[in-house]
Each structure stands twice: as C-alpha cells, then as structure tokens.
Specification:
CATH superfamily of the domain at 44-126: SH3 Domains
Helix content: 10-25%
Largest sheet: 5 strands, antiparallel
Strand content: 25-35%
CATH class of the domain at 44-126: Mainly Beta
Mean pLDDT: 79
CATH architecture of the domain at 44-126: Roll
Distance between the termini: 106 Å
Structural class: alpha+beta
Shape: elongated
Number of strands: 7
Order of helices and strands: HEEEEEEEH
Strand order of the largest sheet: 6-5-4-1-7
Length: 127
C-alpha cells in the first residue's frame, strides 16, 4: 500500500511539474506608434497675404519653381523649418499642400489653427 501511495504521489508530482513547465502564452509587448495618434499631419492652414508668391521644390529662394499662388489662396501647412541663408541669417519656410505641394517663405502667409479660421481670413483678403 505504501508503494502504491508513493507511486501515485510521484505521478501527481510529475504531472504538476510537467504542467508547470509548459510554454506559457506570453503577451506581445505593446509598442506605441512612432507618431502620436492624436497629432495631426497638418500644422495649420495658411493664407497667402501677398499678391503672388512662388512655390518652390525646396526651402531655398533659388530652388525650382513649382508654380504660383495668389493672394487669399488657402494651403495646408505640413511642416515649418528654419534655414540659415548665405548671410548667416535664419529664414523660416513652410511646406504647404494646396494647388502645389512645395515650400513657401513663412513671411508671405498667415497661419491659422484650423481651416474655418483660414477661410474667414481669406474672405476678408479677397474682398
């Protein structure tokens, strides 16, 4: 009887050891996205405030022209960048998306937080 009890208890222990050694289902770590999901791909909305301005392919006054925008044109501002010019002064440029996707000097546009504000401002410029 003692041998059977010993064998039975040995089997139970062996069974418990085998169950505890099985591969556990580990959860994959949570990796946040590279960009904040609440962030917008648009910095703001810009209104061209000069008669005409040149949209260029890179933030440089001598860059290739992609086209022109007229006063009151509304564009999405995607990025802002400060660049040192040849005299060592910094110029602010914005990457815009509208009729053309390219760069404008920030001095030629007014930037608003949302499209509704930009449309209201554009109406006052085109009257």
């Amino acid at each position: 009887m003692k041998i059977r009890l010993w064998l039975y208890s040995g089997q139970v222990i062996l069974l418990l050891l085998l169950c505890s050694c099985t591969r556990s289902n580990e959860e994959a770590p949570v990796i946040p996205p590279l960009t904040n999901p609440l962030s917008s791909p648009v910095v703001g909305y810009g209104i061209v405030r000069v008669s005409y301005t040149n949209v260029v392919d890179e933030p440089n006054p001598n860059a290739l022209s992609l086209g022109y925008l007229r006063q009151g044109s509304i564009v999405q501002v995607i990025e802002r960048r400060s660049i040192a010019n040849t005299q060592g002064l910094t110029e602010s440029w914005v990457l815009v998306d509208g009729n053309y996707q390219g760069w404008l000097q920030e001095a030629v546009i007014d930037i608003y937080d949302n499209e509704a504000q930009a449309k209201t401002a554009a109406e006052s410029l085109t009257k």
